[in-house]
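Q: My labmate handed me this sequence with no annotations at all. I'd like to see what the chain might look like in three dimensions before we decide whether it's worth expressing. Could you predict it?
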Amino acid sequence: MTLKDVENRPEILLNHLLSLWESSVRATHHFLSEKDIELLRPMVLEAVKNVPVLLLAMEQETPVAFLGMDGDSVEMLFVHAAFRGKGAGGALLREALKRGAKHVDVNEQNPQALSFYLHMGFAVSGRDETDGLGLPFPLLHLHLVEGTSPFLQSPDKNI
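A: Here is what I predict for the chain of 159 residues:
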């Protein structure tokens, strides 16, 4: 598996990433209805198009996971269902941490994602009753706890 920084985002790539997102969401976001997924699809496409930093985890020439960052915030991290548990999400998040990621929001109803981020050195710092669209999906705000990420333990790192 290799990681790739993406600046040019042609339509074929965006459509592939949207399918990847849907595969990930169907495997992890059991609280979303079909109607919710349909509502979110065009918003996700816009977010992937416009996120300042887009990283892909590639298996051969195929993206199997992606992470979007804006400043020190991880805005999105999705792994294709067939590649869950194989290291793609961890590899992407480690790269984001090296680039200064310190914040991420996670759906409270997605305990696997919460567990993943807690394992990676994040802690819950706040909660909203609704998501960014005002939908009834509570969000947990997480921040990286200095010195707790197992991937940034070298003494010369300032987090």
